[in-house]
Design goal:
This protein is mainly beta and about 70 residues long. It has one domain (about 5-60). The chain contains no helices and seven strands. The strands form two sheets. It has a four-stranded antiparallel beta sheet, with no helix packed on it. Strands 3-4-5 form a three-stranded antiparallel beta sheet, with no helix packed on it. About 5% of the residues are buried. This is YopX protein domain-containing protein. Pfam families: YopX (PF09643).
Length: about 70
Amino acid sequence: MIHKYRAWDKGKMVFDVWPTSNDTIGKWIDAGHEKRFHDLGGSKVVLIQYTGLKDKNGKEGYFDDTV
């Protein structure tokens, strides 16, 4: 299974986020010639894991999605 996540952060959905080993959730940002990890921070971020399934339109399904 592909380990992919999205997160709710301050009322908006953020895709392609990554949890780290120290309970940090963030997103890799392309900063020109390098990539930087942007910490979304805080306990108010809700992490949602990809199920590995897609709907009939090819949209990725995540836990807690309504089908």
